[in-house]
Amino acid sequence: MSVPEPFARSQVEANAPLADRFRATRALMEALVAPLSDADATIQSMEDASPAKWHLAHTTWFWETFLLRDHAAGYRLFDERWPFLFNSYYEAEGARIARFSRGMLSRPSLEEVLAWRAHVTAAMDALLGREELSSLIELGIAHEQQHIELLLTDIKHALFRNPLGPAMWEGAPKPAEERVAAGWHEHPGGIALIGHDGFGFAFDNEGPRHRVLLEPFALSNRLVTNAEWSEFIAEGGYRTPSLWLSDGWARVQREAIAAPLYWRDEEYFTHQGWQARDPNAPVTHISYFEADAFASWAGLRLPTEFEWEAIGQLGDPASGNQLDRAGPVLPGGSEGMFGDGWQWTRSAYLPYPRFKPAAGAVGEYNGKFMSGQFVLKGASCATVRGHSRASYRNFFYPHQRWQFTGLRLAKDLA
Length: 414
Description:
- The protein is α+β, with helices and mostly antiparallel strands.
- The chain contains ten helices and twelve strands.
- The protein has a four-stranded mixed β-sheet.
- A hairpin with a 2-residue loop joins β6 (267-270) and β7 (273-276).
- The radius of gyration is 21 Å and the shape is globular.
């Protein structure tokens, strides 16, 4: 299979007024927590994850701090004590509670946080029409969309840790689509332009646009499935040290890892509780180490982020299985480069040539995390549709797997 034809560029990011997208994003996060009790929304299952209530509050803190406090004349903080609780990692904004302590915040209550959200959302009306603030508002929307995905993945982990295996939503998941016929997107190599092209919003880490040299390669036309991962397990994938990077093998041994996160016999844990595992669905909740070991077992490799982007920029980023409304999310095997699961690449998360962080506190958004992490491309079933694009650079540490992380294989061409 050859490189796909360029798509007619989606207008998702431009087809709605800024004010409408702001309100829709705020409403979506609130709809997602509707099934949760105050206790559900308060618990923190591990340091990597945050309580649902904290996500609701932190995104509100972002609007109040960087928009209302700094740009709305006469605005007074809803509660002057709360910035200490809901700042995440912005050193320029001062002291804050330790990340692992977020689950200790029984107060303010979920009801109080929702009241704060309503107050801030209403106060933002006065700023939404100001052209000079549009870039900062775009950043705030994208930031809240990121936390919508984190809210879904974090609450899934919290419910999974409950021995009762409670469901956030009732019912059974829809079965995955039939497996896409295996094939390859072939690329002849050469000079490729990588990074955001200037059309619409992008995070600072997506640029500057620059050239890279690619050797001839091919990228699989679909994600690896649960059935294929089961074959990897059956053939001793988790028991064969020669398949693993040293750090990965040490972690497998230390933590007795023998399957993707959320797998149990023939079931897996979902937002709808324990369900029969769908063999046709893309595998997710795997670490970089697991993805790399599988690729070695298959006699293939992970793509670089540049290879992925060279193919991905010809696809529609608003296609595939992504988040449109509040409800359970699960990979379903949709076609295309986007949706179902974020795809590990073999590329370290590093700055592009000529990269410079933005001035001020918002400059802490991405740049200071460019150490020890790997880039993932695409989008997942929990990604708000319209949020991602081919130049998007998600990033996690190689051992982390509570996100909807999967893999698409690559190979070299002679």
